[in-house]
Write a structure and sequence with these properties.
- The protein has a four-stranded antiparallel β-sheet with strand order 1-2-4-3, with helices on one face.
- The N and C termini lie far apart (34 Å).
- The chain is 31% helix and 23% strand.
- It has one domain: Heat Shock Protein 90, CATH 3.30.565.
- Strand 1 and strand 2 form a beta hairpin.
- With 137 residues, the chain is α+β, with helices and mostly antiparallel strands.
- The radius of gyration is 15 Å and the shape is globular.
Length: 137
């Protein structure tokens, strides 16, 4: 889903980072969500590429400090490292959306889209979200 979207937008150079982010977000949701449904999507917005995962669990994501040798607890650390445009979360319906952005120059996104024969028609949407994750307790 992610790679196909980025290829279609002419942004395949960002596919590796975007797939890493989406894998971590979706993996966290699948592992920690107590509900039956997870939704994932990727969008091209004015700030770059936005990757989102929604799950039915209302609990907020928590950035961990894993011990040496621990087999889990690094997912959001990786998301933070790859998300050059920031990451965070917000409540949505009965659950939450965890999002991450890869910053991409606006003019470059238009040029990239033209190069693959899919020019952007009109302005890309601006999505206002908090730019840093909520503080951990």
């Amino acid at each position: 889903m992610v790679r196909e979207a980025l290829d279609g937008w002419g942004l395949s150079a960002y596919a590796s980072d975007a797939c890493q982010i989406m894998g971590e977000l979706a993996g966290n949701a699948a592992t920690l969500c107590k509900g039956d449904m997870i939704r994932a999507w990727v969008s091209r917005i004015d700030a770059g590429i936005e990757l989102c995962v929604w799950d039915e669990h209302p609990g907020r994501p928590v950035l961990q400090s894993p011990r040496d040798g621990a087999e889990c607890g690094r997912g959001l650390i990786l998301v933070q490292a790859f998300a050059s445009g920031g990451w965070g979360w917000c409540s949505l319906g009965a659950g939450k959306v965890v999002w991450a952005r890869i910053a991409v120059d606006y003019a470059f996104m238009f040029s990239a889209a033209r190069s693959v024969g899919r020019p952007v028609v009109g302005p890309l949407p601006h999505v206002r979200r908090p730019t840093t994750p909520a503080a951990t307790p």
